[in-house]
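Hi Prof. W.,

I finally got the Homoserine O-succinyltransferase prediction working! I wasn't sure whether to trim anything, so I left the full sequence exactly as given:
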Amino acid sequence: MSNHYSSVGLVTAQRAEFNVPLPLANGSTLDQYEMVYETYGELNAARSNAVLICHALSGNHHVAGRYNLDDKNPGWWDTMVGPGKPIDTNHFFVIGVNNLGGCHGSTGPSSLDPATGQPYGSAFPVLTVEDWVHSQARLADRLGVDRFAAVIGGSLGGMQVLQWSITFPDRVANALVIASAPKLSAQNIAFNDVARQAILTDPDFHGGDFYRHQTAPRRGLRLARMLGHITYLSDDGMGEKFGRMLRSGSYQYGYDVEFEIESYLRYQGDRFSGVFDANTYLLMTKALDYFDPARHTGHNLTQALAAVKARFLVVSFTTDWRFSPERSREIVKALLDARKDVSYVEVESVHGHDAFLMTDPAYVRVMRAYLRRVAEGLQI
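And this is what came out:
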């Protein structure tokens, strides 16, 4: 992005407490919970300009801006959200939320269970994308938003967008589904299981109750992140960035870090395992596995989308093999067969699945153009 676009500036996370039990897909209920969120821009008088950002596996509510002047890391989608940016806070009231089960402030496995005074740990329920959407709808009610101008998300966030359009068809005007899929392939489920096994078999996991042992399964989480990260990058992008470069210029004939790609992956794994919660990682990957909105319609996605009223923008990236363009085209075909309004763009990119977080010019142009039309159609 060119640097004349300004940031949303300094932001503060907010907290909403809910004391009405939330029924969950697994048959249990969450009796009380908190959700952490951030907002950018102003809700207009007609309350018609709200945009919900749904985060992916390792994302959170901190979508844009910084917490203080010394904060080196802006929100995870700061390139996309702000004044003059594609999701323009001069026009939209943008909401970023940390999903239930997260580890950035919303109630999750590391939170204290009011019934015991101890962290939930293994007692925290497994959640689904539908559960998240219902909890997000309650937050929208709390913020006075009856209908979103747009619900936007990439990857697992895109699955939430799809579910929003199905569960609450009257509450979504535009659905932007980016680098996503109508359900995971067997290969994707397999990747998730290997990542979970790395955590579950770590001696420091303690069946999910590692908090009371004052430890964490960092080795398992580190391996899970390293594996995941490989799947987020494209072969071409990885080759272009690292190739077969050796750190010392020659073979060392040992098992320490020798190739630059090894160094990069270990850095990513170490950093992630220090800031993320292993139980949250398990929970998020399981929600990915379970997502299948056509499961209730005899695996007929067109039928599952029959009641949606939103206009759709579906975006995929050429080198994304974790959520390939073919998977986005499945969504597009089902929407077309259901006679829905859908635009589809396949963006040339070397960034693989992570492209939805990048600023490929074609991608930014598409988002800007579509959301400009959304802004122009707002009821003021």
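The CA atoms of residues 294 and 304 lie 5 Å apart. Does that look reasonable to you?

Thanks,
D.
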